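Extended Data, panel c. Modelled sequence:
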Amino acid sequence: MEELKRKRGRHWKEEAVKVVLFTCAALSVVTTAGIVGVLARETFAFFEVVSLPSFLFGTEWRPLLVPRSFGILPLVCGTMMIVVGSSLIAIPLGLGSAIYLSEYASDRVRNIIKPVLEVLAGIPTVVYGYFALTFVTPIIRAVFPETQVFNAASASIVVGIMILPMVASLCDDALRAVPNSLREGAHALGATSFEVTGRVVLPAALSGVLASFVLAMSRAIGETMAVTLAAGATPNITANPLESIQTMTAYIVQVSLGDTPAGTVEYQTIFAVGALLFIITLGMNILSHQVLRRFQEVYE
């Protein structure tokens, strides 16, 4: 009888845990649906006033000034400039760090370097923004005097530092997932350590490495405070990283300060910009998951 009571007690506990876990999962789904719903409602209201082609292909962004213009290409250009610039910094440094930690570093060195890299991910983004203004920008202006106070170059540098731990960590996991039998076989054929890394390990982990690049770029697209402080608020189409630009997230911050009345088309622009940002980020995340699935299928 006592044994039966204990079994029933365990059964009810397990059922209670299942209910709690289901509630957590359902809450996340409901929250996501609510965000998408609000975003879609305000975005549709915006496009009742502004045409979709003029929004997507317009080259002037002046939603708060008369005459108003709602072409989002300057914001997209500024965002892509930050993504490309930060990727040029984070991808080679992150991949190089991952290769060293996975293939060459001793356990002692690895246990020191990897936590230090991960500390970078815990620094608040606003600190990176002030670091760009007070340290990175003066250095750039000393080399290039024509550099503006707010510029894309310093923002790209600090965003690259921010996403570097993500690239290094994910690439390290992908490289370490490659079976040791491949390394041993290559060494048995007389390959050097460099050849094993470059011609065996890295190609075998290529899917995971590429997925880490896509996720890091997606993180750079959504960065807000660092680019708001460092890159400025000048929406223009330029390829010069020494000039001030404005990203999509920086514009959302600008309008969200409370100076724009709610319900107006100017206010609804932040939802239209947010919807486009959501679509871009979602597409990149789906792409990275597809690449990761291929990587997992190879070695499971």
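The chain has a mean pLDDT of 85. This feature is highlighted in the accompanying rendering.
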